[in-house]
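Notebook entry, cofactor series.
This is the third protein in the set we're modelling with a bound small molecule. For this one the ligand is guanosine-5'-triphosphate. I'm keeping the input format identical across the series so the outputs can be compared line by line later. Sequence and SMILES below, as received.
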Amino acid sequence: MSMDEHVLEKLGWGPPFQEAWRSRASDVEEPARIGADFGVEYVLYSARGDMRATIPGRLRMAIRKGQSVRPVVGDWVSFEPRIQEGTSIIQAVLPRRTQLVRKAAGRADEEQVVAANVDVVFLVSALTRDLNPRRLERYLTVAWDSGAQPVLVLTKSDLCEDLVAARERIATLAPDVPLHTVSSLTGEGLDAIWQYIGGNRTVALIGSSGVGKSTLINRLVGSARMEVGAVREDDKGRHTTTHRELFVLPQGGLVIDTPGMRELGLMESEEGVRTAFVDIEELSAGCRFSDCRHEKEPGCAVREALRSGQLAPERLESYRKLVQEVVRPKQDTRKTTRALNDFQKKRGR
Ligand SMILES: Nc1nc2c(ncn2[C@@H]2O[C@H](COP(=O)(O)OP(=O)(O)OP(=O)(O)O)[C@@H](O)[C@H]2O)c(=O)[nH]1
Ligand SMILES: [Zn+2]
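Returned structure with ligand:
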């Protein structure tokens, strides 16, 4: 293995990206990972070190036409180094393995990718009175949609009086998802978190403001984070400030912390809801009607489970809320489109 490949591997480089990059068969392009995204300018991590880069007009056009995705933090790209100019050119975004998506504020129809090629997502919630199972269920659907492995991380365990009860309450939401309680204050439970970090994997944290994401990242990333805003000399001898959103840990592994992640709202798809509520989906299979809404239909297996105590009423309640938000509006849009088409057809006649 060459020196360059070793550097790239530490950034999460692997066979799927390697193949995509090789198929470009370019003599001048090199692979790099997006370390920070400033909209017009990017910071790339490459075998040459950190590079500043922009998107050329051709790629910009392709993005506008939907022929290419816009590069985001975590993406692997093929770039053309421009050492003299000081700003390199991103020529292509390599196919993503995973992506974390959120709904743009106020625009129900617009999706925004906040990070790419994430292997593990920590769904962070604090063990305080704010602990909100409904919100966690929403984050779970975001995670399931992303393709990354979700891990529930409950922070501030030092503030929780009944850890066992809290754990149990959350564990029922997603029995198959690993669950960890930690305290960044006392360090309790942090050992278990380390198993997800390292091995050139990329970890991202999502969770509401104030749950302790930054504090946890600081505990994990430690010295690597100190580089944020660090002054360093570039290859022209100038002092530049580097900004990072993707952190390469000294002991191996990568952590993504982007501003977008903080606002990562609710981007659920029907698919995500179904995966997050697999228990209800499974029960539904026993309903008499395949399109049962589990309301007043006879032979409803879901309401039967409710009666027998097998299913918690809150669980069904939040399922209904999410289905209303995610599935129903889509049907409404279809209806509206159909009505509009009919209207136009009539006018055309
Ligand atoms: N007691 C206790 N307090 C904590 C713990 N972790 C974080 N805090 C405190 O919780 C507050 C919020 O922590 P942050 O790390 O800034 O939360 P955040 O999730 O990054 O918030 P945003 O940056 O707004 O997204 C701070 O005052 C921390 O000191 C913990 O494990 N125990
Ligand atoms: Zn039913």
